[in-house]
């Protein structure tokens, strides 16, 4: 078996004017990503996602990888990440290189799964897993005025039993947002907060202490991703677990987060971290330091499918029969047709669970009409 065709397919969607949303750093109106489609000489098709803007991701795939991928045996997928660090030399740690590798890697795993008739989570060494617990990623900062409690009320009605909200715009506002979310969710649910790196360490520390009474499951990106010393300072001063990883790429950056437990939870994004092959290495490193792994997802449906398969494969070590922490999977509740419309059978978090596809590979079928509708090339 060899790969005979590789195509990068940029996708985009824009929110209506005045409907921008975001985090403490600002608003955004555009959603975009890039899919990669591989096809082999026997007609097997694999899909992956480079969570990066179309023009850059497409050029990276075509200029740096296409020649090597064409003619490649998809079963040699784990050599891709290694080669990306050495050829082209010095570019392996670049986010766009890692995004391109991620897409190609996941597409290869999709092909492998289809060729042997097994879902990817079983190929990665996971046991049979039929469902995961989704958490609503919600309560974004918005351009339009709306009561802050509305998104959490909607999430509860939809059946979510866990949620992550945006904070990071000031201590008083942080307290109000967390208090509101906790009151609506109730006392026996997981509530996470995301500061999106908008604070200096002393500000993040003040906020963490102010919201501690609301039983926060984890604090995500309390300081900028490059501020390693800030993470270490916070880690030594607060009891709430710290999570990070969406803005880190490849095994070497994640090793820095995992070593000495700089963070308690790593969050690789399967469209940026180097794909399933790198994510498996990252999960192995995390396990050796007893650091949890919870994938970050703000991708299209293809990236979500990869993250679900990866999450279903992660070891529960050191937990055994009585697992105190469910494998939480992020489910963005903002408007995103690249997630909701792209599959013939979209992922459905209703009822507080999300089904892990058991069909071969990623276990998804692309809706070709939707793909054409959102193409940006």
UniProtKB/TrEMBL annotation:
The family database entries (InterPro entries) matched by this protein are listed as: Enolase-like_C_sf (IPR036849), Enolase-like_N (IPR029017), Enolase_C-like (IPR029065), Mandel_Rmase/mucon_lact_enz_CS (IPR018110), Mandelate_racemase_C (IPR013342), Mandelate_racemase_N_dom (IPR013341), RHMD-like (IPR046945)
Task: Name its co-factor(s).
Answer: Mg(2+)
One Pfam match, given by its short name, reads MR_MLE_C
What's in the keyword line of the UniProt record?
Answer: Magnesium, Metal-binding
Please list the residue ranges annotated as the Mandelate racemase/muconate lactonizing enzyme C-terminal domain. 148-241
Judging by the UniProt lineage, the source's domain of life is Archaea
By its UniProt entry, which Gene3D superfamilies does this protein fall under?
A: Enolase-like C-terminal domain, Enolase-like, N-terminal domain
Question: SUPFAM superfamilies under this entry?
Answer: Enolase C-terminal domain-like, Enolase N-terminal domain-like
MF terms in GO: hydro-lyase activity; magnesium ion binding
Q: Which GO terms describe its biological process?
A: amino acid catabolic process; carbohydrate catabolic process
Task: Extract the PANTHER family matched here.
Answer: ENOLASE SUPERFAMILY, MANDELATE RACEMASE (PTHR13794), MITOCHONDRIAL ENOLASE SUPERFAMILY MEMBER 1 (PTHR13794:SF58)
> What protein does this entry describe?
Mandelate racemase/muconate lactonizing protein
């Amino acid at each position: 078996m060899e790969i005979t065709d590789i195509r990068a397919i940029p996708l985009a969607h824009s929110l209506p004017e005045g409907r921008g949303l975001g985090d403490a750093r600002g608003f955004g109106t555009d959603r975009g990503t890039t899919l990669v489609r591989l096809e082999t000489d026997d007609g097997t098709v694999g899909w992956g996602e480079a969570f990066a803007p179309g023009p850059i991701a497409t050029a990276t795939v075509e200029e740096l990888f296409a020649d090597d991928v064409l003619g490649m045996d998809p079963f040699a997928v784990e050599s891709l990440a290694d080669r990306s660090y050495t050829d082209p030399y010095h570019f392996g740690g670049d986010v766009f290189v890692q995004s391109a590798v991620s897409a190609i890697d996941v597409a290869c795993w999709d092909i492998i799964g289809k060729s042997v008739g097994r879902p990817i989570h079983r190929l990665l060494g996971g046991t049979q897993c039929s469902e995961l617990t989704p958490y609503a990623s919600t309560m974004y900062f918005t351009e339009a005025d709306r009561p802050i409690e509305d998104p959490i009320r909607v999430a509860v009605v939809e059946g979510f039993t866990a949620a992550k909200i945006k904070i990071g715009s000031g201590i008083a506002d942080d307290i109000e947002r967390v208090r509101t979310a906790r009151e609506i969710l109730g006392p026996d649910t997981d509530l996470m907060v995301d500061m999106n790196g908008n604070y200096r360490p002393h500000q993040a520390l003040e906020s963490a202490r102010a919201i501690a009474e609301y039983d926060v499951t984890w604090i995500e990106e309390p300081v900028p991703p490059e501020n390693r010393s800030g993470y270490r300072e916070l880690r030594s001063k607060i009891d709430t677990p710290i999570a990070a990883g969406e803005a880190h790429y490849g095994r070497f950056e994640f090793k820095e987060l995992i070593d000495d437990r700089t963070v308690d939870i790593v969050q690789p994004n399967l469209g940026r971290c180097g794909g399933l092959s790198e994510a498996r290495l990252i999960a192995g490193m995390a396990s050796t330091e007893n650091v949890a792994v919870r994938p970050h997802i703000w991708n299209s449906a293809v990236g979500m499918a990869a993250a679900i398969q990866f999450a279903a494969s992660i070891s529960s070590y050191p937990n055994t029969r009585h697992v105190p922490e469910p494998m939480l999977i992020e489910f963005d509740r903002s408007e995103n047709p690249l997630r909701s419309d792209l599959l013939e059978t979209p992922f459905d978090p209703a009822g507080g669970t999300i089904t892990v596809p058991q069909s071969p590979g990623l276990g998804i079928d692309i809706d070709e009409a939707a793909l054409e509708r959102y193409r940006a090339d």
